[in-house]
Design brief:
The chain contains 18 helices and 9 strands. With about 450 residues, the chain is α+β, with helices and mostly antiparallel strands. The strands form 3 sheets. A 4-stranded mixed β-sheet has the order 7-6-8-9. A 3-stranded antiparallel β-sheet has the order 1-3-2. It has a two-stranded antiparallel ribbon with strand order 4-5. The N and C termini lie far apart (about 45 Å). It comes from Devosia rhizoryzae.
Length: about 450
C-alpha cells in the first residue's frame, strides 16, 4: 500500500528528533551562509527585486532581520524580502538529482530564519528544522518529476517543491505535532503561489524581477501556512497524493509516489551544491572550462569555442540578447565568452556596463552551443550538469576541457577555500566571518546569535 500523506509527514517530524550526520551539518551550514551572503549582496546593490523593497512592506523595529540592511521586518515580510534577495543573482544552490532539479535554500532558509528569530529558537532547533525542509524537498522533487516544465509548461520547481517542504520545516520549528505539520504542508501545497518560467524563456526574453519576487512570495506563503496551522487551520488529509492534489495537479504525467516511501533519514543533503560562478547552474561547468582555456590559450587565438552541454540547457540558456544582468546570467554564450575573454567569472562581470562589453559581445559570435544527448543522459542519471568545451583556431584544435560541475576534481580543502572566497566576495569582512563561522559549526549557539 502506498504511503499516506500523514505517514510521510510523520516520518519527517520524527526526523527532527534524530541525530544529524556531520556531513549533513556541514551542508546545512554552507547553504545558510551562501543564501544570506547572496541576499546581502543583492540588497546592498539594489539588484533585481530588492529595488522594490519599500513597496507595501513595513520595515523598522520588528522581529526579524532583513539581510543586507540594518532594518528589521515582521517575520512574514522578512521571509518575502530575504527570499527575493536570495534569488536576485541566480547565484544560489541547486539540487543535483536525476528526477528533478531546483532551488530550495532560497525558500527554506528565509522562512525558517524569520520564524526562528521571532520565536528565539535554539541553534539545534533551527538545524533540525532546516534538515527536515531539505530532506522533504528532495522527496517531493523526485515524486514530482520534471514534466511540469516541458511541452510549453513553465511551473518553477522552486515554487512547487520548496514551498510545502519549507512549510513542513517551519511547522517542525513551531511544534513536533504531526497534525500541525500535516496542516501546514497541506495549506502550503493547496494554496501555492506557483511561479512561472516565462521571464527566463529565450523566446520571451524579459528576464524580469518576477523571478525574484516568486521566491519571496513562496517563502512568505510557506511561513504563513505554518502559522495558520499553528492557529488551528486545517488542510486536506491527502494534499500531496490525493485526488486533485499537488501531484495530480502539477506532475503532468511524471509523478512517481514510490519516491515518497524513501526514508527521510536516508536522504543525502550532499545532493545540494552551491555555485562557484554568478550564473545559472547549467553554465557552471562550461564557465570553468572556458576560463581555463582562455588562460592557457588566449582568447585572441580562438576562432571558435564549441560548447557541448545537455540538450535542455542548450535550449533554455541559448539567449544572445543581453539586455540586463539576469539575461547575462542565463546566457551560455555570454557566460562562456566572458569567462574566456576575461579569464575569470566574478560578480562584476555580470553587472552594469560589463554586460555591454564589446570584447565579450563580439567573442560571443565565436561561441557555438550544442546540445549533446549523451550529456543529457548523464544529467538524468546523476543529476549533474556536465559540459565539454573545445577551442578551435587556424591550426585546428587548440585545447579542450570537460567538467561535470564547478567543483569537479577539487579536494575538500580546495572546495572549502573557494566557497570561503565566494562569501568574502559577497559581503564585508565582519559579516563574512560570522557567516563562515556558522557554516563551520551551525549547531553553535553563538554562531546563530551573530546571524540574528
Amino acid at each position: 500500500m502506498a504511503i499516506s500523506d500523514r505517514e510521510w509527514v510523520s516520518r519527517h517530524v520524527a526526523l527532527a528528533s534524530s541525530a544529524i550526520s556531520r556531513a549533513d551539518v556541514e551542508v546545512i551550514g554552507r547553504l545558510v551562509a551562501d543564501t544570506i551572503a547572496i541576499a546581502t549582496y543583492a540588497r546592498r546593490h539594489r539588484l533585481g527585486g530588492t529595488a522594490f523593497d519599500e513597496t507595501g512592506l513595513a520595515m523598522g523595529s520588528h522581529d526579524s532581520a532583513v539581510w543586507g540592511s540594518a532594518l528589521t521586518a515582521s517575520p512574514l515580510d522578512a521571509a518575502f524580502l530575504n527570499g527575493s534577495a536570495a534569488e536576485a543573482l541566480d547565484f544560489q544552490e541547486v539540487l543535483l538529482n536525476g528526477r528533478n532539479n531546483g532551488h530550495a535554500a532560497v525558500v527554506i532558509v528565509p522562512a525558517v530564519f524569520a520564524l526562528a528569530q521571532q520565536r528565539g529558537a535554539t541553534s539545534e532547533e533551527v538545524l533540525q528544522a532546516l534538515r527536515v525542509g531539505f530532506a522533504a524537498n528532495i522527496g517531493l522533487g523526485e515524486a514530482l518529476g520534471r514534466a511540469h516544465r516541458t511541452d510549453g509548461r513553465g511551473f518553477r520547481t522552486t515554487s512547487l517543491t520548496a514551498t510545502p517542504a519549507a512549510a513542513l520545516a517551519c511547522a517542525v520549528l513551531i511544534s513536533r505535532d504531526v497534525d500541525i505539520a500535516l496542516a501546514a504542508t497541506g495549506i502550503a501545497a493547496c494554496t501555492i503561489p506557483a511561479g512561472l518560467l516565462t521571464a527566463m524563456s529565450p523566446s520571451e526574453g524579459s528576464y524580469s524581477v518576477d523571478k525574484d519576487l516568486s521566491v519571496g512570495f513562496s517563502a512568505r506563503h510557506t511561513l504563513h501556512a505554518a502559522l495558520l496551522a499553528e492557529g488551528g487551520a486545517k488542510g486536506p488529509s491527502a494534499p500531496i497524493t490525493g485526488d486533485k492534489g499537488w501531484l495530480a495537479s502539477f506532475a503532468s504525467g511524471s509523478a512517481d509516489r514510490t519516491y515518497l516511501e524513501i526514508a527521510p533519514e536516508s536522504r543525502e543533503l550532499s545532493a545540494y551544491s552551491v555555485k562557484l560562478f554568478p550564473a545559472n547552474f547549467g553554465c557552471q561547468a562550461a564557465i570553468r572550462s572556458a576560463m581555463e582555456l582562455g588562460k592557457e590559450i588566449g582568447a585572441e587565438r580562438i576562432e571558435r569555442l564549441e560548447v557541448k552541454v545537455k540538450t535542455s540547457s542548450s535550449q533554455s540558456l541559448s539567449t544572445r540578447a543581453i539586455g540586463n544582468h539576469l539575461a547575462a546570467r542565463f546566457s551560455l554564450p555570454f557566460a562562456v565568452a566572458s569567462a574566456c575573454v576575461r579569464e575569470r567569472s566574478v560578480l562584476a562581470d555580470f553587472e552594469g556596463s560589463a554586460v555591454e562589453d564589446a570584447s565579450v559581445l563580439s567573442f560571443m559570435d565565436r561561441v557555438t552551443v550544442e546540445g549533446d544527448a549523451a550529456l543529457e543522459a548523464r544529467h538524468l542519471d546523476l543529476g549533474i550538469f556536465p559540459a565539454r568545451v573545445f577551442a578551435w583556431g587556424a591550426e585546428g584544435l587548440l585545447g579542450e576541457k570537460s567538467y561535470d560541475g564547478p567543483f569537479d576534481g577539487m579536494s575538500d580543502s580546495e572546495a572549502h577555500a573557494v566557497f570561503a572566497a565566494k562569501v568574502e566576495a559577497l559581503v564585508d569582512d565582519s559579516v563574512a566571518r560570522d557567516l563562515l563561522a556558522y557554516a563551520s559549526e551551525p549547531a553553535a549557539p553563538e554562531a546563530l546569535r551573530r546571524l540574528f
